[in-house]
Design goal:
mainly alpha, two-stranded antiparallel sheet, 16 helices
Length: 336
């Protein structure tokens, strides 16, 4: 048993392990090649987050999904490069919108070079992804375009917020479906498509990716509050301090509005205040960790992970299916 990829995924078959490791190494080389420019400064900026590392969650899913067809098909690795480039490009843009200072343990591109360079570098990465995509055929271009539309729509919905009378929790889950679920779903879809898997398998893996992507983000929401370490890749309470309303906070607000308990209203008031102060942030984390809203968020995370797992039932048994199931279990474990 060897540990690879996201969350310490354990691959129990030597052939599958070799395929995944070889594929991810090829993706890494492809990312460096795709981010090279004749202009040295552009290369430096474009490779900034590539070299900072990352889980490579989406390329891993491409590799695993390709096992249901021919994992050595020529389009598999380029497809994985496309989804990771797209993901990286969104990080450049997200950090500008969020005014983030750190990403993956290094200075964010906007903090290092300013917003304009960060936005343009993200655009450069999108362009390089499109260039690779063109070689994968019109169907791949269409699939990516649809996913990208959903991704941007999710970002716009998040920025605009829910309309009056709309349920903020339902709105948030719609946002996650677009911002996170869409690209994770495409990762699974591309892996199956480019390997020549049957259409029914492509559809199953796409549905799996959609649900797993949402569960993955919800687990991060829980970790931002529940973790005492750097499990989520961020200091606990980062989202709270930045005023980001993740699922536990939205559930708390819904309960405060519905029942008006003084302790809930006081916690909402605390969250609406200045959490730049470490003591106020620590107090907010302490109260949220003891609040039923956090446990409800955990249950919702588990539900999405279980739905992802259930979609895999029709697929043939094997090590690749077992690895995909283990990813669902890993998401649940992350959420506690």
């Amino acid at each position: 048993m060897t540990v690879v990829g996201l969350f310490g995924l354990s691959v129990r078959d030597q052939a599958l392990e070799a395929d995944v490791q070889t594929g991810l190494a090829a993706v890494e080389a492809g990312l460096l090649d795709a981010t090279k420019s004749d202009v040295p400064f552009i290369t430096e900026a474009a490779q900034h987050l590539v070299r900072a590392g990352g889980k490579r969650f989406r390329p891993l899913l491409v590799m695993l999904a390709s096992q249901f067809g021919d994992p050595y098909a020529p389009g598999v690795v380029p497809a994985a490069v496309v989804v990771e480039l797209t993901h990286l490009a969104t990080l450049y843009h997200d950090d500008v919108m969020d005014e983030a200072e750190v990403r993956r343990g290094v200075a964010s591109p906007n903090a290092r070079w300013g917003n304009s360079v960060a936005v343009l570098t993200g655009d450069f990465l999108f362009a390089r992804a499109s260039h690779i995509l063109a070689d994968l055929g019109p169907e791949a271009v269409r699939v990516q375009a649809e996913a990208f539309e959903r991704l941007v729509t999710g970002q716009i919905l998040e920025t605009a917020g829910p309309r009056d009378g709309n349920d903020p929790v339902a709105h948030y889950l719609d946002v996650l479906g677009g911002k996170t679920g869409s690209l994770v779903a495409v990762s699974c879809r591309f892996g199956a498509m480019t390997s020549g898997a049957d259409d029914s398998v492509v559809d199953i893996l796409t549905q799996y990716g959609e649900r797993l992507g949402v569960a993955f983000q919800l687990a991060d929401d829980v970790l931002d509050i529940a973790s005492d370490s750097h499990e989520s890749g961020k200091m606990p309470g980062t989202d709270l301090r930045e005023g980001i309303h993740t699922l536990p906070v939205l559930l708390l607000r819904a309960q405060a509005e519905a029942h008006g308990k003084p302790e809930d209203l006081a916690l909402v008031e605390l969250l609406d205040g200045d959490l730049a102060d470490d003591e106020r942030l620590s107090e907010a984390l302490r109260l949220l960790r003891a609040h039923p809203a956090l446990e409800q968020a955990r249950r919702d995370t588990v539900r999405y992970a279980q739905e992802a797992r259930a979609t895999l039932a029709p697929l043939p048994e094997g090590y690749a299916k077992s690895a995909l199931i283990e990813l669902c279990d890993a998401v649940v474990h992350r959420a506690g």
